[in-house]
Request: fold
Amino acid sequence: MFYREAGQFKTSYAADQAIFPILQDRLFVIAVLAVAYLVIPFISTPYFLVTIMIPSLIFCIAALGLNVLTGYAGQLSLGTGGFMAVGAYATFKMTTMFPELNIVIVFLLSGVFAAAVGVLFGLPSLRIKGFYLAVATLAAQFFLIWLFNRVGWFSNYDPSGTISMPPRDVFGIRVVGSGAAPEVRYLMVLTLVVVFCLLVKNLVRSRMGRTWMAVRDMDIAAEIIGIRLMWAKLSAFAISSYLCGVAGGLYFAVYLRTVETIAFDVVLSFVVLFMIIVGGLGSVLGSILGAFFITAIPVILTRAPHDLGIPISVDMAQHLEVIIFGSLIIFFLIVEPHGLARLWQIAKEKLRRWPFPY
Amino acid sequence: MTLSFSFGLGRLALAAAGAVAIVVTGVVPQKAAAEEDAIFLPLTVYRTGAYAPNGIPFANGSRDFLQMLMARDGGINGVPLEFPECETRYDTAMGVECYERYKDGGAKGAAVFAPLSTGITYAIMELAPDDGIPIHSMGYGRAAASYGKVFDWTFTFPTTYWAQATAFIRYIAQEEGGKEALEGKKIGLIYHNSAYGREPIPTLERLSEDLGFEFVSYAVDHPGQEQSATWLSIRRDRPDWLMMWGWGVMNQVAISEAARTGFPMDRFLGVWWSGSEPDVRPAGPDAAGYKAGNFHSIGTEFGVLQDILEYVYDGDEDAARENNWGEVLYNRGLVNYIYLTEAIRTAMEEYGNVTLGGEEMRWGMENLNITAERIAEIGAEGLFEPIQITCEDHEGRGPVIIQQWDGENWERMTDWIDPMHDVVWPMYEESALAYAEEHGLEVRDCD
Reply:
């Protein structure tokens, strides 16, 4: 009833192959974008932008990256933290070596380094699968962190190995570093998220995405119908690591502004993996929902008792947060094992048939 | 399409409504219900997570001291204090969240932040100058921030990791019979593999060149439970002295491992974050002889601790002990806020007895001068040494003591040892100027 697509006829191939073929979907996405661009920056407090929106959006890109690899191409990876670290250190090295270089270009280039590293560590995927591949990518995680810890060059020989982001302007506007307004940082990250979402959405509908999915569903069958496994797997590793690398650069430069390698330890790899599991494997929407769920809910839960005026100690609030958040994850996975994105699908189905329950 | 679920639209809507309700409570900015004119001192603490055994005594010491001031004097010169806690779990992202949450709290925003973690200090000191909030990283954080000409909003007093490393070498030299005796000796460092643990390495490398001892380092990854391989290397290398830059569970494991492998305990020297009761208790009597640095004294005989006992715990010593009263890290939390409340008093001499914001507080910190007489007045005679901060010197060049664990208690064993300021100050300057260049900062003129 709310979601009836009856009467929407497609009269051209282009219309039939649109990303959002249904009018309601299109309107909904436009509305979300309008709110994200035109409403949120003006009504939110800097606190909300800095602690919830910016990290959530950055993790959207990381989750999107991992979803390409794990959700679409079926290659389990635990190296996300390492690839993000590559992006962060590449951003730092490039922007300190070439201070005049536009920082957005630096972010986009930093992903290239991560992609190269990703392809290198993706090579074992040609021989091993599943959990074994997870262990091989785990090696990437540990090796990369070890490398950044050990080699002083990556941190410009900082005594403690910490990198911090110098201020950078784009067209005269301070976008990162000291003095960058939260609204500007938010809009920049948001734009990158939109661009990458579009990119991935189109990739997975293209020939490349279809080969990934064929490999995911059954690699022998894929090989028999003429898909080159090496090319398919390595391209998935490259694109996935590229996105993770950009996310790492943003995580360092826009969100925390200073990081040490510990920020990219194996816990981060698991967190991003949980995002796509909770959000939905093989779904762009799932990456976004998962990133927001895992990043924002703990922050909100931790401060909820304080905001609601419930007088409990901070350590109790923290313990409660862990308990409630854990229960929420279990709850959502039991309700819908395919993630939040599937839940959204179901909601749409319901809306379509409402008020008739099937 | 076949639908194989029994999940009604009603329940879905309910879940969605619940989620929205949670989000909304988080988004709506809420002003803490508090006294309008209070000075706002948010306490970033970690009472949970891997480092909680060390975080709790520190947090209790800070809280009890401020509570005592409120109960005894009603604040500072009649201006009340507000000091909400914020849990960081020693995690940088959570620390930044705390900072963002509390920076605009109270009537005039947070007066000062003491981040209580080197990682959080590094992150917040990038943000704080924009918001006009001073940072006090007492004996942790970026050592080069002592150089006030570049880092005008960050203070490291009374001393830093680099200074402490030189004080340790001076102490070792004393024990060995002079600096010349260090030639050819092997001095090891077992460190937490993070920004914090790596801080002393350049200083020690530098000293090893200058003084001719061999420097070996052993990294332990966060959180530090697994150290058997590290200790195998230490047994193989047999360093004459071993220093430790550890934190939380890493300390406990290292000290137990040292005892188990028979490393001479009186040649094992911990940083001031590796020398508290929770660190040595698991090894207990086996750890007897283990030493650690400190920049304040230990014990409960000081007037200010007795005041806390009287005003916060109504003289109930058992209750106070349960809250870590008199433990090493408890005293450190207390000393942290003695410094900061003295800075508030200093600022009040300039600005009057009013609610202070970050700007005024920064002035108070930069003009801080705690004399021996003032220390006696506070009831902290012998607890810490007089200190003076200037525009250029944000460290105050404080001295260090060595304390020793006798199996049941920590005992102070040396007099105040001066770090080698002639070695570390040029290093602060070099590192700070490099930072200023990288970040395009102006170097202030302090004359």
The first strand of chain A starts at residue 163 and ends at 164. Chain A touches chain B through 61 residues (CB under 8 Å). Strands of chain A lie at 163-164, 168-170, 173-176, 258-259. The first helix of chain A runs from residue 13 to 16.
